[in-house]
Design brief:
36% helix, 13 helices, 8-stranded antiparallel beta sheet, 6-stranded antiparallel beta sheet, 538 residues, alpha+beta
């Protein structure tokens, strides 16, 4: 078992200590007894002896042992170093993570094996409670200087985090009894992935995952914000404002942010105005005029980035420079090269600009509203002229201005999100294609199953994804296809009972794929349970 640290994002090594259960100086086998708020390692042959850990407060791990020892062996780099600090305390400097840890013995005994070798310890091993009995300790993480604190006893510390989670769980939407296991799992994943402000993180951020993808991305944040909007509006707004705080002078939002890095190498599709509109519908707190004006200004600059820096001229549509820009990293429309003119990008932009026009009217910016409306009309005309071919939408390889051969990606049907602008017969045609080519037992595939590029575990080449499912369900409902929207919502909720809250899912078996614990999957489940739970239950 490993003790991990997520500073520095998913490109930084996260394993910092190997954890062993010991007795009389020998490693022993153990079973795990876990809840959402504590981890207990139970001696397999002597279950009355155990070691328990909990994260009692931000940046604080508390531990308690009974009859066994807990040994932490550092996975160190050359300069990582442990040194005595005060009586019963040792400070560990992790150069690779740019953090420090304070180990404080609160009760019992400790054995530290950390011989020095010129510029760092040869090895570092810390054993709490080496001689049995009872023992407790604290491990604290910080950047520069340790701040003295008072420690309560372990049961009180554990009760604190237990109550914190109970409050979070209580605020999650109520679901039909059948889906209570999914509610419990989704609630835990979202709660556990919230990290506090530090470094580049200007507020509390909900990371995508704590397994591999521990950053906040600028479209997963939208789905997490939507889920939080009704009951945790401050935290919901923070998910957007983190990116607004770091918005580039060009207008682009960062692709992802963690405590240490901001990446602009890619970006994500312009769904942010839609997300904010949804948030406003869920909670009137987001209708405060100063807030609306602030978000409008940021969305205006983000939209102009696409219009000014992502297209060659006014006769062409904005482009994706990489599959990652779309969020559909390896979708089949990107297999022939980039940049790509894609119908989903055009549709998202048109909807975003339509929303900006409405917001401008609300703010009394009538001339700006007219300009936005004119721009949306022009982009819509370009979409239909350039990417609507033979009764379907296509993508174009921009450098050669040619239609991309592969036509099996679900991304090509995304203009459904602007069904309010499409001729009704075209909207109906897209819906029929959605059902005929992409509907599977557990939802909608990202690549048609009759496509030669379809793969069972192909990332965006077949598996079901939560955000895409939600975007289509929302579009179907907005266009009056309520029965189909409800059916797809029901399928996704059933999917979580089979595959959990995974990154994506096998559309036939429902098996969870890649990362087993994703926040936007959890958030989408909770959103659908809120909106369709009663219909599903009925």
């Amino acid at each position: 078992m490993m003790l991990r640290d997520l500073h520095g994002g998913d490109e930084a090594p996260s394993n910092i200590f190997e954890v062993r259960l010991m007795q009389n100086g020998v490693s022993v086998d153990y079973d795990l007894d876990v809840t959402e708020t504590r981890l207990r390692l139970v001696h397999r042959d002597q279950p009355q002896h155990w070691a328990e850990l909990c994260i009692s407060d931000e940046d604080v791990i508390r531990g308690m042992m009974n009859g066994v020892s807990l040994q932490l062996t550092a996975l160190k780099s050359r300069y990582d170093s442990l040194m005595p600090y005060r009586e019963g305390q040792w400070e560990y400097h992790l150069y690779t993570k740019e953090i420090k840890l304070m180990f404080t013995l609160l009760r019992g005994e400790i054995d530290v094996d950390a011989p020095w070798s010129t510029v760092g310890n040869e090895r570092i091993s810390i054993t709490f409670n080496p001689n049995g009995g009872e023992s407790s300790f604290a491990i604290e993480s910080y950047k520069t200087v340790w701040m003295r604190r008072e420690y309560d006893d372990y049961p009180a510390a554990y009760e604190r985090v237990k109550q914190h989670y109970a409050q979070w769980l209580q605020q999650m939407t109520v679901v039909p009894e059948r889906f209570e296991p999914s509610r419990q799992l989704a609630s835990y994943i979202t709660w556990s992935c919230v990290v506090h402000p530090e470094g580049q993180l200007t507020d509390y951020a909900m990371y995508m995952s704590k397994n591999w993808m521990f950053n906040i991305w600028s479209w997963d944040n939208c789905f997490n914000a939507l889920m939080l909007s009704k009951r945790r509006p401050e935290l919901a707004l923070a998910q957007l404002e983190i990116f607004m705080a770091h918005q580039d002078h060009s207008g682009i939002y960062a692709d992802f942010i963690n405590d240490k890095f901001i990446s602009f190498n890619c970006c994500k599709p312009p769904i942010h105005a839609w997300a904010f509109t949804q948030m406003r519908q869920q909670n009137a707190q987001f209708n405060e005029p100063a807030l609306v004006a602030n978000v409008y200004d940021s969305l205006k600059r983000a939209t102009n980035y696409w219009l000014e820096h992502r297209r060659s001229d006014a006769h062409h549509l904005p482009v994706y420079n990489h599959g990652n820009d779309s969020g559909w990293d390896n979708a089949s429309i990107f297999h022939e090269g980039v940049p790509v003119e894609a119908p989903d990008l055009a549709a998202h932009l048109i909807r975003q600009i339509d929303i900006l026009s409405d917001m401008a009217v609300e703010l009394g910016l009538i001339d700006e509203a007219k300009k936005w409306s004119k721009m949306a009309d022009e982009l819509y005309d370009l979409l239909m002229e350039r990417l609507y071919v033979g009764d379907t939408f296509v993508a174009r390889y921009a450098p050669e201005d040619r239609i991309i051969e592969h036509q099996g990606s679900l991304i090509l049907l995304m203009p459904l999100v602007i069904g309010y602008r499409l001729p009704p017969e075209l909207t109906d045609r897209l819906v029929k294609m959605l059902i005929a080519k992409f509907e599977a037992p557990y939802g909608i595939c990202t690549e048609s199953m009759d496509s030669p590029l379809y793969k069972d575990n192909g990332y965006w080449l077949g598996p079901i994804w939560a955000p895409v499912s939600y975007l289509y369900i929302d579009a179907l409902q907005n266009n009056g296809y309520n029965e189909l929207a409800t059916a797809l919502a029901h399928k996704f909720m059933e999917l979580t009972l089979v595959g959990g809250m995974a990154e994506n899912f096998d559309p036939i078996s429902g098996k969870g794929l890649v990362d087993p614990a994703f926040t936007w999957t959890s958030s989408v489940f909770l959103l659908l349970a809120e909106q369709f739970g009663m219909a599903v239950n009925g």
